UniProtKB/TrEMBL annotation:
The chain crosses the membrane at residues 156-179. InterPro entries: HATPase_C_sf, HATPase_dom, His_kinase_dom, HisK_dim/P_dom, HisK_dim/P_sf, Sig_transdc_His_kin-like_C. SUPFAM superfamilies: ATPase domain of HSP90 chaperone/DNA topoisomerase II/histidine kinase, Homodimeric domain of signal transducing histidine kinase. One of its GO terms (molecular function) is kinase activity. It comes from Pararhodobacter zhoushanensis. This is histidine kinase.
Amino acid sequence: MFFRTLSGRFLLLTLLFVLLAEVLIFVPSVARFREDYLLTRLERAQIASLALLASDGSISDKLAEELLNTAGVYNVVLRRDAVRELVLSSQVPGPVSATYDLRAPPIWTLMRDGLAAMFIPDNTVIRLIGDPVQEAGLLIEVTMNAGPLRGSLRDYALRILFLSLIITLATAALLFFSVQRLIVTPIRRVIASMAAYAKAPEDARSIIDPNSRVTELREAEEALQHLQTDLAQALRQKERLAQLGGAVARISHDLRNILSTASLLADRIESSSDPAVARAAPKLLNSLSRAISLCESTLAFGKAEEPSPRLSQFALRPMVEELIESERMAAGEASDAVEFLVDVPATMMLRADPEQLFRVLTNLVRNARQAIEATRKPGSIEVTARETDTTTAIRVIDTGPGLPQRAKENLFAAFQGGARKGGTGLGLVIAAELVRGHGGKLELIRSDEDGTEFRLSLPLGG
């Protein structure tokens, strides 16, 4: 629809505002025309009465009637020297319906009477009171027919309306074409540039060239140019990283096979009778295991094939107790140094993918356990869960040594957020992706010398 466009709405607003301005001009103009018309009648009546007074009243009735017809009034009353005198008179066709005092009337009264005068019935007799010109008396009063006044007012109003309509249309047309030229056309050019860039972001020719003369539009074009340039560079970098990632994945795959073979050979070396070889074999096996783990983590992250969560309703506490028991078994002899606490209501139900949530919580609890074990001091790990009106908040709190500053700065960045020696820094990245797949958020609440706290927020399921 035309009036939903920028130019259409601008045209409509222009028409409305110009018409409003014309109305504000029209009403005072009509009031001023009526006042001038009536004052002219008073002046003519005064001239007629002065002509009669100059002849000492010795004029014929026919001439007196001609004077009244020329003035357009029925009779004239002139007050001179505190004496009220009927100077000229003729038969009045009806009673006086209204009296108007033209001696400095308020502007609001003039506008009201001016609009009302256009709707006065025919043969309506009105009385006018005014000040004589040239101080030829104290007051002049006439009666007249309002019909001619009404006709003149309507003719004047039609001329004003016709002229206003022409001005309105001309102004609206000029503004419409100006807006089309100065605003709409540059905006369409920006839109066309965005569409062309979306089709071929790698083509530098689709980047907009700012040339608008309007300051605001020029700034918008420059901002779009910077955005398109930065995005094109980011896309090129992403493409290169994708190619590099593919190469790394292939190298990791081949390297994993080579390291697996080396690990099998190292197992045989461990049974060597040479004491030096026997002491070095475990270190070699650990190094090979870390290298294999790094290759497998890199391959798993590079595939990016995590399935969408399969949501189901399940009790949260049994799952937490199961993963805690698994961590106790994994800790082995060191399990006595780590105390596991569970503060999850037995009746709490959660709508999520139980397998993916198990992986997320296992990653958080295992990281906490390994951090405490590395200090060789006792510590505790607590898993709590609480519900609000909109979310379920699961917290994993430990009393470990806290994360290093570099790990906190790159916590959810692949290959950069590892906090322990030999770690890949992918565990929390994958966990955060799984939580985002549920529409939730995984965040670090605190990490200092008193321990670390992670919070997992999931929206309540329907």
